[in-house]
Amino acid sequence: xxxxxxxxxxxxxxxxxxxxxxxxxxxxxxxxxxxxxxxxxxxxxxxxxxxxxxxxxxxxxxxxxxxxxxxxxxxxxxxxxxxxxxxxxxxxxxxxxxxxxxxxxxxxxxxxxxxxxxxxxxxxxxxxxxxxxxxxxxxxxxxxxxxxxxxxxxxxxxxxxxxxxxxxxxxxxxxxxxxxxxxxxxxxxxxxxxxxxxxxxxxxxxxxxxxxxxxxxxxxxxxxxxxxxxxxxxxxxxxxxxxxxxxxxxxxxxxxxxxxxxxxxxxxxxxxxxxxxxxxxxxxxxxxxxxxxxxxxxxxxxxxxxxxxxxxxxxxxxxxxxxxxxxxxxxxxxxxxxxxxxxxxxxxxxxxxxxxxxxxxxxxxxxxxxxxxxxxxxxxxxxxxxxxxxxxxxxxxxxxxxxxxxxxxxxxxxxxxxxxxxxxxxxxxxxxxxxxxxxxxxxxxxxxxxxxxxxxxxxxxxxxxxxxxxxxxxxxxxxxxxxxxxxxxxxxxxxxxxxxxxxxxxxxxxxxxxxxxxxxxxxxxxxxxxxxxxxxxxxxxxxxxxxxxxxxxxxxxxxxxxxxxxxxxxxxxxxxx
Amino acid sequence: xxxxxxxxxxxxxxxxxxxxxxxxxxxxxxxxxxxxxxxxxxxxxxxxxxxxxxxxxxxxxxxxxxxxxxxxxxxxxxxxxxxxxxxxxxxxxxxxxxxxxxxxxxxxxxxxxxxxxxxxxxxxxxxxxxxxxxxxxxxxxxxxxxxxxxxxxxxxxxxxxxxxxxxxxxxxxxxxxxxxxxxxxxxxxxxxxxxxxxxxxxxxxxxxxxxxxxxxxxxxxxxxxxxxxxxxxxxxxxxxxxxxxxxxxxxxxxxxxxxxxxxxxxxxxxxxxxxxxxxxxxxxxxxxxxxxxxxxxxxxxxxxxxxxxxxxxxxxxxxxxxxxxxxxxxxxxxxxxxxxxxxxxxxxxxxxxxxxxxxxxxxxxxxxxxxxxxxxxxxxxxxxxxxxxxxxxxxxxxxxxxxxxxxxxxxxxxxxxxxxxxxxxxxxxxxxxxxxxxxxxxxxxxxxxxxxxxxxxxxxxxxxxxxxxxxxxxxxxxxxxxxxxxxxxxxxxxxxxxxxxxxxxxxxxxxxxxxxxxxxxxxxxxxxxxxxxxxxxxxxxxxxxxxxxxxxxxxxxxxxxxxxxxxxxxxxxxxxxxxxxxxxxxxxxxxxxxxxxxxxxxxxxxxxxxxxxxxxxxxxxxxxxxxxxxxxxxxxxxxxxxxxxxxxxxxxxxxxxxxxxxxxxxxxxxxxxxxxxxxxxxxxxxxxxxxxxxxxxxxxxxxxxxxxxxxxxxxxxxxxxxxxxxxxxxxxxxxxxxxxxxxxxxxxxxxxxxxxxxxxxxxxxxxxxxxxxxxxxxxxxxxxxxxxxxxxxxxxxxxxxxxxxxxxxxxxxxxxxxxxxxxxxxxxxxxxxxxxxxxxxxxxxxxxxxxxxxxxxxxxxxxxxxxxxxxxxxxxxxxxxxxxxxxxxxxxxxxxx
Lengths: 577, 897
What we know:
The structure holds two protein chains of two kinds.
Chain A: H1 2-13, H2 31-34, E1 41-49, E2 52-67, E3 81-88, E4 98-107, E5 117-118, E6 121-122, E7 125-133, E8 141-148, H3 156-159, H4 170-177, E9 179-180, E10 186-193, H5 200-203, E11 217-220, E12 225-235, H6 236-239, E13 258-273, E14 280-292, H7 297-301, H8 307-312, H9 322-330, H10 333-336, H11 388-391, H12 407-412, E15 450-453, H13 471-480, H14 509-517, H15 520-524, H16 542-549
Antiparallel strand pairs in A: 1-2, 2-12, 3-4, 3-13, 4-7, 5-6, 7-8, 9-10, 10-12, 13-14, 13-15
Helix pairs in contact in A: 1-13
Chain B: H1 2-19, H2 37-40, E1 47-55, E2 58-72, E3 87-94, E4 104-113, E5 123-124, E6 127-128, E7 131-139, E8 147-154, H3 162-165, H4 176-183, E9 185-186, E10 192-199, H5 206-209, E11 230-239, H6 240-243, E12 262-277, E13 283-295, H7 300-304, H8 307-315, H9 325-333, H10 336-339, H11 391-394, H12 410-415, E14 453-456, H13 474-483, H14 512-520, H15 523-527, H16 545-552, E15 584-587, E16 604-611, E17 619-625, E18 630-636, E19 646-653, E20 656-664, E21 674-678, E22 684-689, E23 695-697, E24 702-704, E25 718-721, E26 726-728, E27 735-743, E28 750-755, E29 759-761, E30 776-784, E31 787-788, E32 795-799, E33 815-817, E34 825-830, E35 839-846, E36 851-858, E37 864-869, E38 877-885, E39 888-896
Helix pairs in contact in B: 1-13
């Protein structure tokens, strides 16, 4: 609520704004992986640490919708699975530049009981090994052995009680599980409150988010559920391709500080069930069964017929499969529900989101429209990111692919700090002119990844300007706040470190992505909504206000995050919900 | 908490027990959600519960329910839960000790298709993704051959929410219940079948019990951990004669405990041995089928089998249990749970179980504590001759070895069933000797395998609405058999209510967690006369405090969170994903969606002329766009000067509808002044005096550019008009009517009236008549081709004098045709009626005054225009037609020929 009020008043006060978007999180998002919860990658976060800004934290979550009381065999990381976090930092090297691999083992300390914890002993006790590769997976070093995964937060009798573990508190177990790798990273692997928040029941009932005719009630479908988190805190100079510290960055959008992050889970190709309950044996090549970069990509962009394939690919294979997947971004299904000439009337909850069909009286971004394609090869785009001489046909691949200029780069290449991808501030009404920089996470070395420019300063979580709207909030300020909108110079604007420039735990990615599908990113760079004409005093028209005010109503997590590593909240206690 | 809980659950049992004497019992242990490490990672194949009961509404049949896929969040989209492909879901029935293995097998396999692979929604525009159908095959030769008895069976869609289920953009179904009902099918072999999502009928405080046995919770409120969750259910209703080994009907049973009517039921899920992942996101399976999950008795693998053996247990059939008795037997002979019900063991560590204390010294002779001998010292003695414990009868089944104390109660309850033979009869009639013959109460003995849910189908049904119905199952029957004078005077076999309850089969309502914990606590031993330690052999009343404590024990969750259905498939509808079980409620009010801004160029140049008063600084104004209430122009705050000033504001607006609001901060209008809004040609839109308080705003919006017609100059700007006067407007080509609009520019009055001609008489308005002695504005718009043009320029009038009381409706008269009327179709028209009227009451009376017709007719726009059908009862003659509109009566005569 607070964020919306701020945005709207700022806009009303003056006039303009901006923005980005993207699309993801992924719980039970594809048919096959929904049946393999242990390997189901639910969310990925990547942000510069507020309390330690020389480091980046990457969080990869797995095993969705865990009920905290789901005993007797509470969920945990699976054996026989490779959980991996991949980092790309260099367009000149193919594939991963840094890879972290986590594997888990479980032992029963007391197989004579059906309880998970009894008399100081724990069953399904989980430990992990972390390996690291800095050569694209050719060789690995073991950086953590016998890492501790805390037990499930069963209840006071099991955790603190004398017949249980006799621990001081669950928090103490979590803290004790944090370890430092021999390679220098700080790591936590264990259960946590699911940091994601979304009205699953509403949005998947044919897009009913925010719920209509529901008595003013929306629902966080992931509230009070747990996931398993892999959290890695890494010094920036370990992630930067040349080993530079962030103090060496040329400026706060230095392109050499962009990383692309994605996570995955893989199983061996062949699983053979043994007789007599002897478990199963795995053999064969490792096959990726789940992956996640940008939130919600495979949940709400890729349609059901292609979801399983998408999970099997790496981002580096995305471009080769552009024939299958490209169109889901160029002409996204969700846009059908934000267009009155398509199925807009069928999804009343999205009435505030209406994509540009006639921006500036010239450009049609409706599905099947041409968007900016008519400008291809013209002098209007010379020297911009849309000039074939600069990035080839990456951003204007074909006619009839209107969202190749916004949704596609947000998800698949990152956004360069180059016209037209600058705020309308200073553009003098021409969206293709140079304007005020606000993002640079361009790393066209693969497809779906979460891309973060590590040089962008941190917005403190306690800053009144901090906003779950991420870069949308930064864009609004860059267009309307007199501190920033006086000229096109590069300045740090609060929330430039927010989604889709990385992803902070607090970022309301569902809202941001729906706004993006609704065209807010186009508007930010000066491709205003259909109801804007130069006759109006401000480009912040009603249709743009509708977009900026749009919300699913579920705007924050149900538990406060921690202010220090691992930042995620402690898992819900089985007996406490 | 404990006190409350006991009081709540125990009363019927407790009262009975106190009244007289005893009870008895049984035990078992199950239901199984995520119960073993491997299967917890394979939810699709995870068998959660099995039920089997004689159908209350169809007692010649048995209903068997096998549930799978635990803990489904109702809102778990976009790929909601369902049965898995490449899994064999099977329900197995054993009915004959003389045949090895299963006698009947039902095998379900499922298939999914995407009807519209282009969407990420599960349901859209009548199409469904992951749409699931099933094949049912049946074997009656132990699995050697299978016959397909259902093909293409329907699994209902998930209950996603009203938009997906009932909505036009979804499936457009009349209700979710209708989809469930439509999915019930009859197999070619006669069984009634349902496969689909349901509300999970099991209820248990998972959080409490698995926090080291904290059930009922010693601090905090018990919570049903399976509330608000769904499961995928297979429900089969089978004729008893189909299940009975010799094809007999239940009417042919020798008695209600006829051993020939015992069936053992278990369910399983199997996968092929080898699963191969491909690099394109597809999967292949091959090889032999391997059982990965099974369930017979509830909670066996959840709370009896320890973690080290759970996976093995899941892989075995019941017929392999005896061969593995070396591994599993001791979990029943010396169950882990019993450690927490024995103060010499870990009893002190689990305070929640303190009411449950097993017999360590029953009848001052028998010790059933873990590791003790139980009844083993009697083995081979005369005391057990002829009983079920006689090796000559069942071999070493029930007394296999020393130090296996629970081989006589928990073991048979789970693994063999309980025979109707001493000592397994109620203490009633035993004369204090537990090994003597007593009153029969159970016979589900079928020692042809291990863990199965065993049901004697000959036992009559206890109606669910009977006052005697109890979720305590056979414990309730035993209490009645020992204490109720209707049953406890003889050892005669009688039907006692709830003899059809767990562990003789399992009804949806049975509180198996409670019953099994009571059984581990020794209640079954007590029922047959092996009383608790605080009973001294020979005392008159064996219902001691220890026994009462066991009987009144409850886990705190004793019923399901929703009611069951009274007919097949008995389980409740699955929760809706969009309903109250779909997550944490958050209050949110969606902002109003604004209409598009009007970005057209401003083409309408208006002037607002304000004559201020002495306090010009108090006067301000704004023009708001009606569509979004946005301020498009504003001004004000003029100079304070005696006599005021004339301010002229130029306003340029795009074509649209607007409101003008003039405000006076002093709250006393503009004394002696006023304002005029006019277009570029000087045509007035609003002409207002200064007689208002804080705010002056016309009662309706205005639109620019304005229309063509207007009150002619002769009648414009007159203050001498009286109600009898007509005023006239300028005609417009092709107009079929003219609507005159009289309004107070400050908003207190507004009246529109449609006239067929260019005139209106000022007393025409019966409803909301014109106010007198008030400066009004009049504007007129033409009706052309059925559409109104815009209102034209305004003028000011002031009607003086006393309003006429006569109802001269000025041209508003009732016209009817044809009249005389022959064909029975009568057209009625009245024009120039009140604009506000929406209905007219039409009555027709015959010459004798009898009302022949009385209809309410819709109307609007100041015009009534309708066609009446006169029925055959309208004979030749004269009729009177009355029409009432807004309290005004119109009357005409009708001639029928």
